[in-house]
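Rotation project, supervised by the postdoc (A.L.). Task for the rotation student: set up a whole-complex structure prediction and record inputs and outputs verbatim in this book. Inputs entered:
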Amino acid sequence: MKTKQLLNLEKIRNDFPILSTKVNGQPLVYLDNAATTQKPEIVMQSINEFYTKYNANVHRGIHKLSETATVHFELAHKKVSEFINADFEEVVFTHGTTESLNLLTYSLGSELKTGDEVVLTVMEHHSNLVPWQQMAKKIGFKLKFIGITSDGRIDMDQAKRMITENTKIVSVVHISNAIGTVNPVKELVDLAHKVGAVIVVDAAQSVPHMAIDVRELDCDFLVFSGHKMLGPTGIGVLYGKRKLLEKMQPFLYGGNMINEVKLEDSTWADLPWKFEAGTPNIAGTIGLGVAVGYLKNIGMKNIEAYEKELSKYAYEQLGKIKGVTIYGPKDERSCVLSFNVDGIHPHDMSTLLDRDGVAVRGGHHCAMPLMKELDVSGTVRASFYFYNTFEEVDKLVESVIKSRKVFGYD
Amino acid sequence: MISDFESMTTIEEDEIYKENILDHYKHPRNFGNLKNYTFKSKEFNPVCGDEIEMFIRFEDGKIIEAKFIGRGCAISQASVSMLTDYLEGKTLEQVKSLSKEDILDMLGIQIGIVRMNCALLPLKVLHSGVEEYER
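Outputs recorded:
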């Protein structure tokens, strides 16, 4: 197949030690990448190197190790900023997408007034819903939810009606973690800006899979996690336009984020440190910097093109199986495939697939309101990354067919 | 540690979808609403979003009818189907003393850590119902 040549799969897979392990006596087919991706050797090495060769706290110690650690730490900051075409000062490191969204809910949401409106979609991950919901209760602003079409896309007609002059914040998921829909964020950015609202893009499932340029997208904030893009867990990103970040109140207070502290009052450090209180996740930041470098070497355009073909193949092959329903749109989708098999609960399906070494996720995918919209309690989710092969899709398909037989379906 | 993990999951796979488990899943006993219940109880499994609601009718200190509604995986459905079957004729004290081990014995399969919540959801529903009823 032509697209296979886009990437040197054999070489790539060799970079990921875990991909050659066996699970339940079968070669691992790892299709739970929307939950977390595997890590290439060089990312793990960089973390190990930090702890073995230059472990020290950053920004403080006037000694060689601290200086080396600070240089590596800030270099990683720089690499990640460049990866999304942002300025250094505009990229804040957090624990992950969830913390980034909590930070925004707190810093932006607490400035709102009764009568102000925040617009979300019914497709949001709980992390882009629950913080807003709880802040709304406290502050008294109103939450509105854009619905979805029958094929699982954002209802843009509704969006146009719902985003009004009362709207202060729009916060939407770029790619649904549950059903893989790629949402028209650029259009939503324009809708928000037309009424003077700011827009937050949950890019946890898009930054790992496609080239993202925050300047081109023109979103006000964009958040994502390191561990879904080859990096370690516990490190994530909050991008914000400089002018907005300057105006905002910090979320966490403490060391590192201050300029001057008196007993009664304090002033804040420059961006991005104003939002990075306490000792940062130094190893995680360095690891993410290396992960981003790895992705850049392969090329995000190549990754996107390869995954598109892989996902299309999986959609077609899986769709041929008797009793299979695939959720979400046929086009405008990423490499997240959410499906159900008649008469087999997603948990049972996941257990049966695991038997064949195929790791998927079964359940509500932290998107319970969306599951309700789809009228299911959960789905089976196979989510791919660029290191997955067409042969692995075949294994998934074979295993689904086999599972139907275990349950006695013809 | 790693070898423990491997042997545990292997046992589970081999035996989990036994014929009687699938039979209870496809033809659950005591499925449906009960109008004249003594108490009812509902619980969610936050991991998968499944829910089970149980209806219990007592007469003269003994359960004379136990029914349930809700949907779930083969493990939780077989568990609630078997449990409601077992409950008939039991006293409140007998119900209260039911343990995790009793449920696993009833199911007769090895359950790994990730599926344990599924197996035990019905017992959780029952016990929280009893607790509420006694209050």
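Student's summary: The two ends of chain A are 32 Å apart (CA to CA).
Supervisor addendum: The longest strand of chain A covers residues 167-173.
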